[in-house]
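Running this now, will post back.
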Amino acid sequence: MNPIDLMKRPAAYACGYENAPAEAQRYAKKLCWAYNQTSPEDTKKRRAILRELLGTYHPLTNIESDFRCDYGFNIHVHGLAVINYNCVILDTSPVHIGAGAFIAPGVCLACSGHSVDPEQRSHGIGTSAPITLENDVWIGANATVCGGVTIGAGSVIGAGSVVIHDIPAGVVAASVKEIVLCLLAVEKADTRRRPARQGKAAQRTDHDKMPHGPHSPCRFDRGTAGGRMDIFERLSADGETVLDDRLSRRPRSS
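Update: finished.
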């Protein structure tokens, strides 16, 4: 099996750098460079380049400059796709982008990797696995999707996330760092002893002093401490954060 046939298979693989099709990569770099030099108003030329570069091109594919990819022939766009500035797709395996995809600035779809064994890595042993974005997926700014991942239809990936596992359909998923910090803050606040308060004031804790801006996970609930802890435990389970519409509902006070 020649290297390009291996790369086009919808399966993970490992190989040495000497097997990489260098000429195909040089051609892709040439096309990416040409695309990034075109005027935004030169729609005809930009479409022609994308049609030549991509394995599957759709007329509603809209890619902003700068755009980079390894080969291009492994990128398959199946409908409307809005790919914003500075997107990188390392398509050493097939990358399928479903209809209605929105990919924010700075996103990296990285099929390729290197051996975790240092000796193998120093000898140029690399790995690769396909990436699939099903229909109506939105990837937030500066997120990274690693090889072997499928993101289910309609799901949203939070800005700055690193996605290493499959994401189910119809959820909002984000990295856990901010969630964990918020959880620790809640635990610290809830362990302080304070005089009992009455009425609505009794429902408030020090957590209410924490920021609840549009990008803070704390905004999902300003109810009782128990309600918050239940929610944050679900958010941080298995090292992956999956948010859904239920988390935006505040628990009712008794």
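The two ends are 67 Å apart (CA to CA). More later if anyone needs it.
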